[in-house]
Amino acid sequence: MSNTNTKAKKTRQKYSKHQLRAKWGSTIFLIPSVAGCALFFFVPYLVVIYYSVLDNPFGKNFVGIYNYKNVIMNSAFQTAVKNTGMFSLIAVPLAVLLSLLLALLLDNKIPLRTQFRTFLLSPMMVPVASIVLIWQVLFDQNGAVNVVLSKFGVTGVDWLKSDLAIVVIVILFLWKNIGYNMILFMAALSSVPQDIIEVARLESAGRVKIFFMIKLRYLVSTIVFVTIMSLINSFKIFREIYLLTTDYPYASIYMLQHFMNNKFKSLDYQMLSAGAVLMSIVMVVIIVVLFKAEEHFSKDLDG
Amino acid sequence: MKQLRSDKLNKSPDQKYVPERRGKRKKVLRAVSLTIATILTAAVSLLFLMPIILTITNSFMSPTEFAANYGAIFATTKSGGRQFVAQFVNLKFIPDMVSFSQYATVLFKSRDYLFKFWNSMILVLPIMLFQLAIASLAGYGFYRYKGKIRGVIFFAYIILMLMPYQVTLVPNYLVSNWLGILDSYWAIWLPGIFSPFSVYLITKYMNRIPKSCIEAAQIDGAGEFRIFTKIALPMSKGIIMSTGILVFIDYWNMVEQPLILLSDPDKYPLSVYLSKINSGEVTLAFAVATIYLIPTLLVFLYGEEYLVEGITYQGGVKA
């Protein structure tokens, strides 16, 4: 199917009306989504880029990279970037690794396999507000975790108001997301061709070797997919952090989303826009790297 | 395999026992590792299950008992004056006495909760249904459309999908303001309906439909729309259902969007209301949460198989 106008004109003479309709019919399916996305996301996003180089949305004076400089030098922004980066760097790989381990565990013929699978997925169902309440009960100064710790003679801390707050959030993130990731891995594991594994077994390859030499190679694109999903969800954890600690949490869990939220509330659109644009650039880089990695590691596998 | 073993069995008696003994040891080892795996999985499952159990059982706890157990964290009287409580919370899975008073309050005395529950339904269901419809169309479109800009558009969708809500917040707000739909449900419905998330998932799956299926239908004279409804849709039923579950859970728990785009608290869904539940009502929170959990539970029980099945092809090679 050709795209450029000149080619289209040529084809118009060659094909019958019916064939032409079939050729261009596919575009019609894309229109609702692309139009909606353009209206609600792409075009306004261009406006955001436009805002990021203005002094304010009303004066409309071009200031170049002034807002970008401003936001990068902002200490709150620096803390937010550091924390968000740290959190994603810890939480996302852990989520991928632990869910893969769980999937491998469940890949054994253990009893009650489907039940366990459902149990591990159950955190998806718990309402956010309920999660927040339970996390408070667990990690408050007077909370249940400290009760257990005090039995071992350890004096507890107010977890969410200490440097360990990030640990609490990572635990919450893992608890919430591992189940779904695990399902993705279980599905991928079951689609590894069994005949290859049989051959490897006959050649007396151990289970560890089979995993690293065969299964892992078939898991590459799932790993990329799970990483993407975990990355999305790592940004969504802001909801829980926000509900647990409101606008200004302890410094170690002050995230980029807090920064943007607060800038939105104080109507500082320039800084917010510049921050948003910077963040999207980072996302583009991450995605390109992930896709290149996927391409590199799974190139000699046939579909 | 069988051939090999029988060969060995036919050999001399002293050789006969070697492979069998080794097999036995292997069997024992296998059983031990299986037991360890089971215990490990059970332990993790229990840990994962705990919050949901806690939510449900504690919803039957009377306000007095709730205060006695959790008063150390939540001030449980409206005046803020704390009743005499222990210094630490007492994490309790089974209440001493089963009480239905919270449910009575939530369901009959105060109409607020049911009203907000209804708001949630009205907000979430259209988003889920229309997002799936538009994403299925787009997924098929991406599958069939081979233009040069396909890659660019799809990449933009992926980047957009990855953006935290706070980045799309300003664009969202600007458009809603411009369209004059701020403070109405449209401000939440429309961006939700066009969310790129399900487009990504469904496209990834539809890309796996063998070209030969499409070609066969074309030879039979089926038009694009017919191919879409008769071949692509039925083949992608699993992923559409499982995407639906994810979308439902995501929007069912939304907090940020209503807070920013709606100014009238009467329009808030229960998720916002529940998360802002004030200290006087905290004893009700678990009962409300349990009621709030029911639709998710139903969606889940109905669709879990799809969730598992639908993903099966997603994770495979070559997206």
Could you name the key traits of this structure?
heterodimer, A: 303 residues, mainly alpha, MetI-like fold, 2 domains, 13 helices, 75% helix, B: 319 residues, 15 helices, 0% strand, disordered N terminus, disordered C terminus
Largest interface, and how many residues on either side? A-B, 111 and 110 residues
Cα Rg of chain B: 28 Å
Name given to the CATH homologous superfamily of the largest domain in chain A: MetI-like
Mean pLDDT of chain A comes to: 84
Instruction: Encode the helix/strand succession of chain A as letters.
Output: HHHHHHHHHHHHH
Helix content of chain A: over 70%
CA radius of gyration of chain A: 25 Å
Largest beta-sheet details of chain A: none
Q: Given the C-alpha coordinates, what overall shape of chain A results?
A: globular
Q: Separation of termini of chain B?
A: 37 Å
Number of helices of chain A: 13
The CATH class of the largest domain in chain A, by name, is Mainly Alpha
Backbone shape of chain B: flat
Strand content of chain B: under 5%
For this structure, the CATH topology of the largest domain in chain B is MetI-like fold
Give the total of beta strands of chain A. 0
Count of runs of 4 or more consecutive helical residues of chain B? 15
Descriptive overview:
Chain A is mainly α and 303 residues long. Chain A has two domains: 17-51, no CATH class; 71-297, MetI-like (MetI-like fold). Chain A has 13 helices and no strands. Chain A has helices at 5-14, 17-51, 66-73, 75-107, 113-121, 128-139, 144-151, 165-190, 194-202, 207-236, 238-245, 256-265, 269-297. In chain A, helix 3 packs across helix 13, helix 8 packs across helix 10 (207-236) and helix 9 (194-202) runs antiparallel to helix 10. Chain A is globular. With 319 residues, chain B is mainly alpha-helical. Chain B folds into two domains: 2-58; 103-311, Orthogonal Bundle (MetI-like fold). Chain B is built from 15 helices and no strands. Chain B has helices spanning 2-9, 13-58, 63-70, 101-109, 112-144, 150-162, 165-179, 186-193, 196-206, 211-219, 224-235, 237-252, 256-261, 270-275, 282-311. In chain B, helix 5 runs antiparallel to helix 12 and helix 12 (237-252) runs antiparallel to helix 15. Chain B is flat and about 75 Å long. Chain B starts with a helix and ends in an 8-residue tail after the last helix. Residues 1-18, 77-84 and 314-319 of chain B have low confidence and may be disordered. Classes of the chains: A mainly alpha (303), B mainly alpha (319). Chains A and B meet through helix 2, helix 4, helix 5, helix 6 and helix 7 of A and helix 2, helix 5, helix 6, helix 7 and helix 8 of B.
